[in-house]
Specification:
Number of helices: 3
CATH topology: Pnp Oxidase, Chain A
Largest sheet: 9 strands, antiparallel
Radius of gyration: 21 Å
CATH class: Mainly Beta
């Protein structure tokens, strides 16, 4: 929560982005994270992707991402950028159902970021339909607002013990 987090203030957020801006940013980047559940626990895995025709496509091998797509699970997808010099950034979140497009490297017309290497086990193409797209911009907090200084563990222990 922003109100109780000493490192973030309401001024740190410029607010929600228009969906069209979010989709433009999705198309401008190629690295993101796919979120799903595995065994009832959340799992977030990195992927290289292509955004085209209102969908995210990425290649994967056998495993959690493929099982989620084969089941038609709803996945979360996030991509972002942050400039540590200016303190500005953005984050785009997508929710949608995943499907398996093909398990063949030679499928014509599939968006791909890289050439397939012989013997590469990542021969499954997963298609994430972008059903809900939202985003937020981050901006530096107001001048003069600094994160509080946190005492080291040793210093706190010494103070507690009266040393």
């Amino acid at each position: 929560m922003i109100g109780t987090n000493p490192f973030l203030t309401p001024d740190d957020f410029a607010g929600a982005m228009a969906e069209s801006d979010c989709r433009m940013l999705l198309a401008a980047t190629t690295f993101g994270r796919v979120g799903m559940t595995s065994g009832g626990l959340p799992v977030i895995l990195p992927v290289r992707y292509v955004y085209a025709d209102d969908a995210i496509t990425f290649r994967t091998g056998n495993g959690t991402k493929l099982r989620a797509a084969a089941s038609g699970d709803v996945l979360a997808f996030e991509t972002d950028a942050f400039d540590s010099t200016t303190g500005e950034g953005w984050s785009v979140l997508v929710l949608g159902r995943a499907t398996i497009l093909t398990t063949e490297h030679e499928h014509e017309g599939l968006p791909s970021l890289d050439d397939v290497r012989p013997g590469d086990p990542r021969n499954h193409y997963v298609h994430l339909h972008c059903e809900m797209v939202s985003g937020r911009r981050l901006r530096p907090s107001v001048a003069g607002h600094e994160a509080p200084k946190v005492a080291s563990v040793d210093q706190r222990d010494n103070e507690r013990l009266g040393r």
